[in-house]
Amino acid sequence: MLEPEAARDVNQRALAVLEEMRRAEPECPLDQPWQSRQDLHQHPDFQELASYIKKAMGDVLAYLRVAETEFQFTGGWANMGPPGAAHKLHSHANNYLSCVYYVRTQEGANTITFHDPRYQNQVVIPTFTERTVENAETVNMGVEEGELLVFPSWLPHSVPVNESNAMRVSLSFNMMFSRFTETMARPNW
């Protein structure tokens, strides 16, 4: 979670820049979902956020005890979802970590769903006395403005339908190890 003052500044700047970018694309009606180009990590107006994200990803790598910590962003983009918009199940191939930062959320547009990637989880489905994170095939995670989630890029996720009356806005970034083929891609035997 960004500090409230930092989040407020990042969010105000992001909303202004994204509205300008979106309006520059006349073929995209304002009542339809929109995704920016994937180079926001290089855009000057997103450098402050990129530095927060870089630190968070570095912290995750340290927590995971990953030896190779030199990495780079492979993409950064915005998602703007009006009421009724959703984002289908997907993952982020050819990356190690992904993240999503929430610029604008509100009740009815404040969750992300993570899906168990193991198809075997559908082979035996017992009756549960209670659904918990430990026995669920999906986990719906509540989010709020200024929150940053970092997760493995292979983890399938989706965004439920925006049931609010306002636009949901998030920024996503992917990272991969800078020298992967030199330092990590060799067989591990």
Please explain how this structure is put together.
The structure is a single chain. By secondary structure, the chain is α+β, with helices and mostly antiparallel strands. The chain has a single domain (4-119, 130-180), classed as Jelly Rolls (Sandwich). 22% of the residues lie in helices and 28% in strands. It has three helices and nine strands; from the N terminus they run αβαββββββββα. The protein has helices spanning 4-23, 47-63, 180-183, and strands spanning 34-35, 71-81, 87-90, 97-104, 111-115, 138-142, 148-152, 157-159, 168-177. The strands form two sheets. The protein has a five-stranded antiparallel sheet with strand order 1-2-9-4-7. The chain has a four-stranded antiparallel sheet with strand order 3-8-5-6, with no helix packed on it. The mean pLDDT is 89.
